[in-house]
Each structure stands twice: as C-alpha cells, then as structure tokens.
Amino acid sequence: MNKWYLMVAAVLLGQAPLFAQIITAPGAGTGGKQGAGGQRPQNLPQIGHLYGKLVDASTKKPVPYASIALLKLRDSSVVNGMLTRENGEFSLEKLPFGTFNMRITFMGYETIYKRVSISPKSIDQDLGNIPLRADAKLLGTVEVTGQKSAFTMGIDKKVFNVDRNLVSVGGTAQDVLKNVPAVNVDIDGNVTVRNASPNIFVDGKPSTLTLDQIPADAIESVELITNPSAKYDAEGMSGIINIVLKKNKKAGINGMIMAGAGTGDKYNGGGNINVRQGKVNVFANYMINAMRNWGDGTTDRTNFINGDTSSLYQHSDSRNTPRFQFGRIGLDYYLDNRNTISISQNIVDGNFKNYEDLRSTFNKGDSLSSRINNNNFGFRNYTTQLGFKHTFAEPNREWTADASYNRSTNSRNGSFSTQPLTPAGNATGQPILQNNHSDGKTTFLTIQTDYTDPIGKNGKLELGLKTTLRNYSSIYDVFDQDTATGQYVFNDLLSNDYKYKEQIYAGYVNYAGTFGQWGYQGGLRVEQYVYSGEIPSESKTFKPTKARPGLFPSVYLTRKLEHDQELQLNYSRRVTRPNFFQLIPYRDYTDPLNQREGNPNLQPEYTNSVEFSYVKNWKNSNFLGTAYFRNTNNLLSTISTPLGKDTLLTTFVNADHNNSYGAELTLKKTLFGIWDITANTNLYHMEITTTQDKETYKNSDFSWNAKINSELKLPANFTLQVSGNYQAPTIALPNNNSGGGRGFMMIPASAQGTIKGMSSVDLGLKKDFLKNKAASLTLSLSDVFNTRQYELNQVAPAFTQDYIRKRESRILRLTFSYRFGKFDSQIFKRKNMKAERENMQNMQGDPSQSM
C-alpha cells in the first residue's frame, strides 16, 4: 500500500490528535488506591498494553491503515491511538488503568465501539482478530469485497492490481500496461495516456529500466495519476504511471514459487519469500525470463525531388532471443510504532541477441540489396533504495526521507553484412562488412523529503524537497572491412561518443481543506532544470539557454453530492523536456536509408491541463467520467524530409502548438456477485501545427479508443478473464518516453502521419486448487485473432510512405504457482511484560512508590 493512499485515508478519517496523556487513575473499581486525604494517587505508571488485528468480516483478510482510538468514557477525549499497519495489526502501549471506549474507523466499513478495561490483572491484552463489516456507502473509491479489487478508481488516481490480471502472467511490464484502462502501448513499447506521454516511475522513483526488462510477475500494482498535484514531478504531459513492485509484508514466513512456458520457446520462473518477526521484515524475490520473438515489416516509399520520382521498398525479417534475470531483496526495521527504516536492492541482468535480414528494392527492381544485422546486447542494472518514516503523535502528521541510487551499464557487439543482389535475387559482387561495439553507463540519484501536517480540523499542509541527478555516457565504435586487405578500419563518420548531465532541483507546497460539502487543494511546485551535453572526441559541448526556475501550479476543487456522487475541477501545468537523443546534433546512419538526427536547439514543451470529473458509486458498480483539455506550446515533434532518391532524414522540432480535448469514461460493474466488468473509452480531438524551413504542416483529427476487461468466477475454482481493446485511426503522436523495445527503421510519430486502426483480444483461464487455494494453474492466450499490427501512412509534398510493423503477439502461456507458509500470530508477541507486571504489583503494596 503506497504512501499516497495512506495519507488520503488518514485525512478522510479526520481523527483528533492521538497522543499519550497522563491521566488521573480511576478508583478502587479499577485497582487504584487512594492516598492521604482521600485523594487518588497521581502519576501511576502507564504500562497497559492492548493489541490485536483488524480483518474484513467476509474475506478474513487484514484491513490496513484503519484508525484505532482509545477514548475516555467521561468526555470521549483521546487517550492513545494509531493507524493499523499493512498487515492489519495494531498495538497501543503505555496505557493508564481504567475503562475506555475503543473506536475503530475506516473508509467503507462500519464504525465499531468496543469497551475495554485495563487493570493490574489485565495489563497485557490480546484482543484477537476484530472483524470489520463493509458499509454500503462508499466515498471516492471502489469498495473492496471478497478479494482485492482488480481496479480501484478515484477522481485523481487509478490503481490496477496486477495479481488479478491473468492475461499478463509470465510476460513483462509491457503486457501489464496493455491491459490497464486508459493506457495504450504501441508495438515498440511506447506508452501513451490520453494520447500523450506520461512520466514512468518504478516504486515512485525514476529508473533506467525499460518496460520489457521488468517481469510482470514482479509487479504488485500500477498507479495512474492523470493530472498530478504539485507534490509530484512536473515531467510528463499526461501525468504519471508508477509501477509498484511486490513487497510482501505478511506475518510469519510465507512465499510463492512459479514456473511457466509459452509457445515459440518462451520460459519463465521464479518466486518470492518473506520473513517477518518482531521488528524486522525481510523480503526477497527472483524472476527469470527466456524467450524467442519474431518480427517483420515493410516500408514502401516514393520520393519526389525536382520532378524526379524514385521508389524504395524494404522488407525486414527479425528474430531476437532476450533473457533476463530480476532479483530484489529488502528489509524493513520497525524502530518503534512511529519510526521505520527500509532498505532494498534490485539487480537486473539481461542479454538480448538480435538478428535481422533487411531486403531493399530500389525503383521497382533496378537494384536490390540484403543487409544482415547480428548483434548481442547485454546490460546490468542496480537500484538501491533507503527510506525513513516518522509519524508524530498527532494523527496524519508525518515526515519521510528517501534516497534512491540507480546504476546501469550496457554493452553491444554487432556486425552488418550488406550484399548486393541481382534482380533475380542472387548475390553479386563482394559483401560490405561492418562491425560495431558500444558501451554505455548511467547513474541516477534521487533524494527527497516530504512533510505532512494537519492544520485545524479539516486542513492539511504538505511540504517537500527533491533533487534528481543523472549522468549518462556512451561510446559507439564502427569498423569497416577493407576489401583489399581484409582488415577492419575505424569509421569516423558512423562512430560517436557522447555524455550528458541532468540536474533537477525541486520544492513544493500543497494545502488542502474542506468547508461543508466542498473540498479544495492548491499547490505550487518549483523546478530548476540544468542540462549539459558533450561529444568528447570532437571537443563539443551543448548547453541550452539557461532557463529560469519553472513554476508549476495545481488547483483542485471538489463538491460532494447526494447519493454517493462527487464533482471535481482541477488544473495543473506540466513540462516535457527533450531527452539527450533528441538534442544531440549527431546523425544516426545505422540504417543508411532511414537516417535520424537530433536538434540542440529544442526547447521544453509546456502543457496546461484542465479536467472536469464526475464520480458515481452504486452498491455494485462505479462510474468515472472526465472531460479534459490540454494546450501545449513548443510540442516536441518530428519532421521527415527526403535526401536524394531513396533516403529519408527524420529530425526533431518544436511544433508551434498542440491542442487536445476529449472525454474519458470508465465503468466498473459487478454482476451476480461473480462477474466483474471494467470498460473504458477515450474520445478525443487533436491538432498539431509545425513550421520547418518555411513549410507549414498541419494535422488534426478526431479519434477514439476503448478497452474492456471481463472477469468471471466459475464453479470448481475456475476464473475466466477476457480483455479487448481497439484504437481507431489517429494522427501520429510524438512519444517522448522510453517504454521499451527498439525496432528496425523506427520512424518517430510526427505532424505528417496517420496511424491506422488496431485491435486485439486476450484470454486467460485460472484454476485454483489444493487447501486454501495454495496452488493455481493459469492458461493465457494473447492477441487471439493475431490482429495487433502497427501501420503508419505519411504524406508530404516531397514523399509518401506506408510503414507496417508486426511483432509476435499471439502467444499461448501456461503458468503454475504455489503459495506456502501461514500466519503465525505468536511471531509478533511483544516482549514479556512479567517484570513490569511484578513491579506494578510491588507499587500497589507500597503506595509511596506511586507518589
């Protein structure tokens, strides 16, 4: 459970300050003795101890972050209290003698009042498992009943729980995001939300991992925040996607092992284990994926230069065999009820072998060539995270400090062999041979601190600071074979080396409050961005014009209505900064016929985003509708221009402006208590205007996409899941995130292109068996009708082009998993209080010790 959910839950509870109080001990009925003059003795030692666990009455699962308050009978003032931990446990210590009311509250559950008494004979009391029954009235989120909801939605945030997603079992983070409502993933792994690029985090921090390097089975949930407040990073036109990795905190010793296989030589396996005892929680997991994938595609292009027409047709046949391992180990140490230290270490190791046969036909058969590309790409990624959390006596007041250090290294060895062919397809002449080698290194350091403090009865103040430092370096060397000597000679034109540094210094302030049925929040984030790049071999440096600190305000206004309805209007300003590959003025000749070059004069794009949302909750269904508008200045885009008869050069430019508006509708419905349906659709209109070399390109269109997920519980512990999505034809959108895969002749989206419609359907069937459903078998089939394909059509005065990409998408997987261990309530017993109890009895025998 993430920190944001904890803070929201705590604020909605609106508890009074929970701090230990010195009180007058009750009379003889509670074991106290009167001192001289008939006065009750003051300052009796407060050593009472109450502990237990909150569980859902129907599922018996723990209820985390519920509010426990111990109240005086006399005036209901608070004696002590806390929020339950993630495993539902609570522990109230240093309590005075007397009889009290224990009040238990949590969103979506009925409030419980329980009478408790503390006396010398009952100092240490285990209240056992206390069941909470669901309340029919919900506020702001989907009710979780029976099991963890596959999809929880609120106005500003959606949480998709991966362990309920059958169709992505055994896959990668790309497969997970393909099935998240409102998120689209293209064939190359690029991610968009509401037709724009989000900022992608892992465990709330930036990461150099791509989506195809994160196994789906290592992911706990995906958080989608479409219009973040000032508390979050300003980067990302369409908000933030946060991938939360699994971190087991269950009691005792427990874990899971799993193994799976898929068609086309695809295998995966791994497991996790968790040990929690006393103040220590240790967790570890390991996953391995090994597979073979294929891909093919075509490019059909015609260039028009000075009245001359030339054509190029290319066909690519590619194969790759990725293998990677994902390991994670971590420790939580609970210093006491208010202080926790956490540390974790991730290690990812991978190797990708790629083969591609690219055949080119010029002017419909005048000349042909075949280029064979073999390369081996390896990487190693380390992420170390350290966190500290302190909660104060007052409820909802806390301070956190976190640091994350990510280090990634990669290397690539490859070869190109280009063979001229006769019109009949036979080899002619000597092949052109080329070798290449590259090394890269990235370090990513993030340090942040956040403070939350309730103000008054309904207010909340949030403050925070954050620093992000990133260093990147790469060397790419190319060697051509001399046909006369057979020796390889360094190619200075194709080789390159570069470095860059990014620094972001940020601070924010947020204030939220309520009056009546109205709620409001206002915040301001300040970010100073510092960038520098260089090409060491050419002694060139690139430093964009130094920008003033960016100001990024956000405003929220909400109104609760009758019958579980709510309205919200919000605004935020966001930024998308060009990455190094878009800035570096180096021309990429990897595919000589499809070249690409960066632009050091690129400026960041700034987006003003407005949303108006409506939420309605019923007993078994929930609806969220949002109308949105985005205006972007200096949109990062691309322009493609022909060079000669058969070459295309793609460069990066800032578009004049971009306007996007639309409506997103999400409905979650439970039928007959066994069938969950989640449907999402996004209807939008976009327009892009770009001017380059006095040539103006305009592109605008209305489009839509839709997703539906159906989960049906069947007899004999079977579960059937069906997921379908459709993207209508749309204009090609610039994409600025590093979602994952790289493909041949990859053409960035631009103001010149239109993407054809695309659809797919996924199936998953799960069978639970053994005692307590400890084992499960999952059979999944992705892209049932094999329709997932990317098609781009580009039309410009100087060229036309049809570009088609197809990757292996119809995959049948079978996965087995087994969960072991059980809850051991004795493992959490507090220290033996025998000595303190005896001490208390001694004090009762000697009143002087009580004074």
Automatic annotation (TrEMBL):
GO biological process, one term: siderophore transmembrane transport
Annotated GO CC locations: cell outer membrane
Record keyword Plastid present: no
Keyword set includes Membrane: yes
Coiled-coil region list: none
Sequence ranges assigned to domain TonB-dependent receptor plug in this UniProt record: 172-240
GO-annotated molecular function: carbohydrate binding; siderophore uptake transmembrane transporter activity
Annotated region described as Disordered, given as residue ranges: 405-435
Sequence ranges assigned to domain Outer membrane protein beta-barrel in this UniProt record: 390-818
Gene3D superfamilies according to UniProt: Carboxypeptidase-like, regulatory domain, TonB-dependent receptor, beta-barrel domain, TonB-dependent receptor, plug domain
Pfam families to which the protein is assigned, alphabetical: CarbopepD_reg_2 (PF13715), OMP_b-brl_3 (PF14905), Plug (PF07715)
Signal peptide: 1-20
SUPFAM superfamilies linked to this entry: Porins, Starch-binding domain-like
Keyword terms of this UniProt record: Cell outer membrane, Membrane, Receptor, Signal, Transmembrane, Transmembrane beta strand, Transport
InterPro entries on file: Beta-barrel_TonB_sf (IPR036942), Carb-bd-like_fold (IPR013784), OMP_b-brl_3 (IPR041700), Plug_dom (IPR012910), Plug_dom_sf (IPR037066), TonB-dep_rcpt-like (IPR039426)
Entry membrane topology: Multi-pass membrane protein
Major location category of this protein: membrane
Subcellular location, record wording: Cell outer membrane
PANTHER family, per the entry: HEMOGLOBIN AND HEMOGLOBIN-HAPTOGLOBIN-BINDING PROTEIN 1-RELATED, TONB-DEPENDENT OUTER MEMBRANE RECEPTOR
Protein's name in the database: Outer membrane receptor protein involved in Fe transport
Organism (species): Chitinophaga japonensis
